[in-house]
Structure formats: C-alpha cells, structure tokens
Amino acid sequence: MWRKWKRYASLSGEHKRLLLEAFLYLGWARILKALPFSKVAPTLGQHMAETTEQPNHVHAPMIKQVSFAVQFMSRHTWWESQCMVKAIAAMRMLERRKIESTLYMGMGRDEKGKLVAHAWLRSGPFYITGAEGRERYTCVAMFARQMEGSVK
Questions:
Q1: Is 151 inside any structural domain?
Q2: How far is CA 106 from the centre of its chain?
Q3: Most CB atoms within 10 A, among 18, 62, 101, 115?
C-alpha cells in the first residue's frame, strides 16, 4: 500500500487529476449500470450510429491517457468495474474533452454455452476499453457520442 501511495504522490498534478477523474466516473458508471437500461440508454449517445474511424492524431495522446487511467483505476475500485462500467466512464471522460467515441455492446457464448455480454469503446481507430476478445461477440447495439461540428 505504501509503495502505491509513493508512486501516486510522485505523479504530476495532471496525471493525479486524470486518475481521480477516472475513479469518480467509474463510480458514477457503476451506479448507472444498476439502473434499468431503458433509462440509461438515451444518455449514451445516438443509438445504432457510429463515429468515424478516421484517426485524429491531435486526440491520440489524450485517448491513450484516458484509456490508461480507466484501465488502471478499474483495478483499484472496491466495486465491480468491468467492461460496461469502463466503457461508460471512458466515454464520459472523452466527452468532457470533446472527443467522439462509439460504445458497442455485444452478445456471445462462453465455453459452457452460457450467454454472455461484453462492451467496448472506440474513438477513431483506437479501442479505449474492452478491445480484448471483442471479436468473439456479435454487436447488438452501438451508441455514438458525436461532438458538435464534427464530420460524420
């Protein structure tokens, strides 16, 4: 614990704020996950739409930082912070920075044949969360968070 605290204390103020923001959004997303999906879905973006896959190299460094912060902090929450929670948290963090993203929801079967779900988030050509194993799922819904003035 002391080693983690020392590492955190050595980070720049900007990195500390980003990690704290990720922690707070993960908590907020976990609360949203507990609500009926019909109430949450309209807040996720345009249903069954996607944002562009064209790279925006200006946003690439921030996208990587958000991805790292969400992935890192999800391992340090005392609540469940799996794929859907991470995708919603990262989407909100990118939205704050006026960066477009698309949240995908997929269904598939595990090794025992049980129906399982997965969520992942993409911005441009970059996968922010849930990239691992997404090819095993059939996309059943997507939500595009587009920023005003962006090219579709």
A1: no
A2: 14
A3: 101
